[in-house]
Structure formats: structure tokens, C-alpha cells
């Protein structure tokens, strides 16, 4: 797969091809973007990288990228393997390898207190605010269906979660 990024892009590390990009692999024309070549990429847009496997041959290959876009870009080639949803889900750490009960309880207590600090040195152990009701939705914010396997990113300090399989499937469709 070939990729291209605009240097100093407002959106860091996104794939972004130059306007009027012309890519050739071993003399064969390769289309790099599905959008019109004169259309700029929007702030929420992201280009994809074409797979060039069928254009390559064993040994030396000639890859030429040209454009009339004056902005600075970085171009690269990576060996990529598309994984299935099940393969990606198997990469997620298992419950036994995840957060310990003590760490999970401490995180929940921090969430209830409204902070994300782990340092309780300034806290008054005699004074605690106890929430008698704290709703946590069992519906996935992405699909609206009930969460089967709850997912949450490790650095998140909030209590909310999403359905892990739905999240992976949505990102597969958007090729992220």
C-alpha cells in the first residue's frame, strides 16, 4: 500500500494526497483518490492509500509520484495486511490480562469524584461525597443496541463504554 501525507497538516498523521496526483507503478497508472483531483480535502476528510500489489513484481519496481501541488508532502510504501473483524477482536487484551479489580475500583471512584488523579494526598479521608445514583447506559452510542462486550480506551477517565464489535465493524467500513 502506498500512502501520502501533507506535511504540517492541521490534522496530524492523516493520509492526504496532493491535488492532481499522478501515481505510476512500473509504468501503469494507479488512481490515488476517489475525489476529484482538484478538490481539497476537508477538515474531516481522509484519503485512502491504494493497494499496489497487482502492479508490483518481484525484484526492483519503479514508482513515480508527480503533482502540480506546491505544498510539501511525504510519500511512503508499507506492507499491509487487511485483518478480519475477528482477527482484530482477538488482538484486544482478554479480561484476565486487563485492569485489575483494585485498579478498576479506583478508576470508578475517581470518576464518581469527578477527577482523574490517582494522588489522594490532598484528600480528607473523613470527608467523602457518596453518589447514591450513578446511571451508566447499557446501549452502545454507535449502534443504539445493547452492549454485548463493553469497550473503552485505556486512558479514558469516564464511565461510558461502547460495544466493541460494533466499533471494530464501523472502523472496518470506514477503513480506519
From TrEMBL:
One GO CC term, this protein: chromatin
InterPro entries: Znf_MIZ (IPR004181), Znf_RING/FYVE/PHD (IPR013083)
GO molecular function: SUMO ligase activity; zinc ion binding
Protein name per UniProt: SP-RING-type domain-containing protein
Keyword Zinc-finger: yes
Keyword Zinc applies: yes
Domain of life: Eukaryota
Residue ranges annotated for the SP-RING-type domain, each copy included: 123-176
Organism: Aegilops tauschii subsp. strangulata
Keywords for the protein's UniProt record, in alphabetical order: Metal-binding, Zinc, Zinc-finger
UniProt record, GO biological process: protein sumoylation
Amino acid at each position: 500500500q502506498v500512502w501520502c501525507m501533507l506535511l504540517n497538516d492541521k490534522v496530524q498523521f492523516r493520509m492526504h494526497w496532493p491535488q492532481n496526483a499522478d501515481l505510476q507503478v512500473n509504468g501503469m497508472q494507479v488512481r490515488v483518490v476517489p475525489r476529484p483531483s482538484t478538490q481539497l480535502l476537508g477538515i474531516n476528510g481522509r484519503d485512502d492509500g491504494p493497494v499496489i500489489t497487482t502492479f508490483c513484481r518481484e525484484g526492483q519496481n519503479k514508482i513515480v509520484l508527480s503533482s502540480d501541488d506546491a505544498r510539501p508532502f511525504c510519500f511512503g510504501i508499507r506492507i499491509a495486511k487487511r485483518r478480519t473483524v475477528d482477527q482484530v477482536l482477538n488482538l484486544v487484551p482478554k479480561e484476565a490480562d486487563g485492569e485489575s479489580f483494585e485498579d478498576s475500583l479506583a478508576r470508578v471512584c475517581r470518576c464518581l469524584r469527578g477527577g482523574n488523579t490517582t494522588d489522594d494526598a490532598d484528600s480528607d479521608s473523613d470527608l467523602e461525597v457518596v453518589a447514591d445514583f450513578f446511571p451508566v447506559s447499557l446501549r452502545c452510542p454507535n449502534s443504539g443496541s445493547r452492549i454485548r462486550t463493553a469497550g473503552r480506551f485505556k486512558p479514558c477517565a469516564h464511565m461510558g463504554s461502547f460495544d466493541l464489535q460494533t466499533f471494530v465493524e464501523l472502523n472496518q467500513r470506514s477503513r480506519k
